Amino acid sequence: MENQKENMNQPEAMSRLPLKPENEGETSRKEPFWVFGYGSLCWNPGFDYQQSVTGYVKGFSRRFWQGNTTHRGTESKPGRVATLIEDNEGITWGKAFLIAAENHAALPYLSTRECQLGGYKTYTVNFHPRQSLYISSSSNGHASDKKDALLYIALPENRHWLGAAPLPDIAKQILECQGSSGSNAEYLLKLADFMRDEIPEALDEHLFSLERLVRKFAGDMKICLKTLMGETQERKEEKRDAKAVMPSFQFASRVPDKKLRCVNM
Q1: Are strands 178-179 and 121-129 parallel, antiparallel or unpaired?
Q2: Residue-level pLDDT at 7
Q3: 114 is catalytic
Q4: Active-site residue among 114, 198, 205, 231?
């Protein structure tokens, strides 16, 4: 297991990162564009998209160091959600979404969700599609090269920043907090499930160590994680069955997960 006490000397700013700041007030773009998600966007994007593909960004590691007072916590009891920190050797896996140029709803939605409420800043970063799943039509059958993608990162100077803490403390805080979108534990556990189900080869010791601790503490405290997840085991199995009978990967990639739950098969 990862050292249970994180490095407390994390950078106070991330100005050295090879990122291009973006205009957070923009509402549209002239060309289709990609958005890379490494937290709840992976399993709950909340906007329409043309295509999704798993992959990674380099130079970052995922950490539950950002506070949240709306979706997964409150002002008096903030939850903890994921952000990225500078790590020259780091690789963070997630999912990128291709958004059509004529989609004028996605960017305002993301600006509200990530920036205004979440405290994140918008940057452009190189996204590397997972080669085994994504082949570009213009690449003559070879794996696609890296792509520019919008990325939302919480910097230490934002008002919600919580920073590093011993992993057991972070896990207990996650287990205790809840916001308008549900429990903080649901956020963590669904992200861990996503990584296992869609990118089983990916390594993220911080994420999976927190998952193990949350499950252990929930067991010790007799807390029902199914209740915190907001679903019964039967509903989870129904969703898996519905996903399994989709006619093709190409079709499924165009439909957000929340729509799959409504399909009457």
Answers
A1: unpaired
A2: 47
A3: yes
A4: 114
Closest C-alpha to 90, from 119, 125, 121, 122: 125
Per residue in 83-99, pLDDT tens?
999 999 999 999 999 99
Q: Is the pTM of this model over 0.70?
A: yes
DSSP of the chain, one letter per residue? Answer: ---SB--S---S--TTS--EE--TT----SS-EEEEESSGGGT---S--SEEEEEEEEEEEEEEEEEESSSS--SSS-EEEEEEEEEEEEEEEEEEEEE-TT--SHHHHHIIIIIITT--EEEEEEEEE-TTT-B-TTTTTSBP--EEEEEEE--TTSTTB----BHHHHHHHHHH-EETTEEHHHHHHHHHHHHHHH-TT---HHHHHHHHHHHHHHHHTT--HHHHHTS-HHHHHHHHHHHHT-S-HHHHHTS-HHHHTT---
Q: What angle do CA 48, 148, 152 make, to 5 degrees?
A: 65
Instruction: Please tell me the distance from the alpha carbon of residue 224 to that of residue 219, in angstroms, as a whole number.
Output: 8
